[in-house]
From TrEMBL:
Pfam families: CAP. It comes from Levilactobacillus brevis. The keyword Transferase does not apply. It comes from the Bacteria. Residues 1-23 form the signal peptide. Residues 193-315 form the SCP domain. Keywords: Signal. Gene3D superfamilies: CAP (3.40.33.10). InterPro entries: CAP_dom, CAP_sf. SUPFAM superfamilies: PR-1-like. This is CAP domain-containing protein.
Length: 321
């Protein structure tokens, strides 16, 4: 997952380097040779009508026995309202939806990425049916950040993971989630909202958004995008954010900055991934990000964002005093 080799640069200053996220891969090995799968998480949602052009319908969550192949039922409508995160030994954990059809021939479990949601739209008084990609539901929306390791993996009982050591146990499917990129303006407000929840849970006063700091943070995000690197200092050794703050007439006794990159995905998932790494998976940076974001002396914050389209990343800059 995260490569956090860079050390804390200065008091309250740290930089989070870019994330490399492993996408979930569906197995192509014969089911008869596969070891039984185990359900590690379930997810319920509103009943949806779906279709699939490929993939097998497995008869149980063990994924050891294949039913029909969906290439023979490309136009068959199925319904689903529950999904299971299944871990097969030696394979990444992936999501399978429980599907069913009216004639009961297609009852079982289908790899989530093969399913397309059928939506009805009305045009000129006529109803037509179109198939769209299934927007992924955040499977960890109710899991506290402190219990997450590689996004989607509960690390509550794993001391090594809780220390923020690197690993590749994520089912986070970057190829899928990048189809639903975060809204950059929403990212900023959600970031502050969730950060304040973390601060208040520790008895630390919340921070408020400062428009001048927000402008500085936006410049810092654009600086990072232009330079292609996460760096607090210019060639002369001056802290760039501090220079911007002085130019804007901000007087501070201490200024904190966090810089980071995260794979693009739906807004809430992206923010949670950023904060999880900053606060709970920061051992590689001597916990500098955590100490900055949870500094009780800071009361003002600005968040800036930029998209690195060629890399599928969102760069964020957080400036606080």
């Amino acid at each position: 997952m995260s490569n956090k080799a860079q050390k804390l640069l200065c008091i309250a200053f740290s930089a989070l380097v870019g994330l490399s996220i492993t996408a979930a891969i569906s197995t192509t090995s014969q089911a008869a040779k596969r070891k039984p799968g185990k359900v590690v998480r379930t997810m319920k949602y509103k009943t949806m009508k779906v279709k699939a052009k490929k993939g097998y319908v497995y008869t149980s969550t063990k994924l050891t026995k294949r039913g029909v192949h969906l290439t023979k039922y490309k136009n068959k409508v199925m319904t689903t309202k529950k999904a299971y995160l299944i871990k097969v030994p030696g394979k990444p954990a992936v999501w399978y939806d429980r599907v069913s059809s009216k004639n009961k021939k297609l009852n079982g479990y289908v790899y989530n990425n093969y399913l397309k949601v059928i939506k009805k739209s009305s045009t000129n008084g006529k109803t037509s049916t179109k198939t769209t990609n299934k927007v992924p539901v955040d499977p960890d929306a109710n899991v506290p950040l402190k219990d997450l390791y590689s996004y989607g993996t509960n690390s509550k009982n794993n001391s090594a993971q809780k220390l923020g050591l690197d690993g590749d146990q994520s089912y986070y499917n970057a190829d899928l989630f990048s189809k639903y990129p975060a809204n950059l303006e929403d990212y900023k407000s959600v970031f502050v909202k969730l950060l304040n929840q973390e601060r208040q849970s520790r008895g630390i006063s919340p921070v408020t958004i400062d428009s001048t700091l927000a402008s500085i943070a936006e410049k810092r995000a654009q600086d990072t995008k232009s330079l292609g690197t996460l760096d607090h200092y210019d060639n002369a050794g001056n802290m760039i954010a501090a220079n911007y703050a002085k130019e804007a007439g901000i007087h501070f006794s201490s200024l904190g900055e966090c810089l980071g990159s995260v794979n693009n995905a739906p807004t809430l998932m992206t923010v949670r991934e950023s904060l999880r790494d900053y606060i709970y998976q920061d051992a590689g940076s001597d916990w500098g990000h955590r100490d900055t974001l949870l500094n009780p002396s800071y009361s003002h914050i600005g968040v800036g964002t930029a998209t690195l389209k060629d890399q599928g990343l969102i760069t964020n800059a957080v400036v606080m005093y």
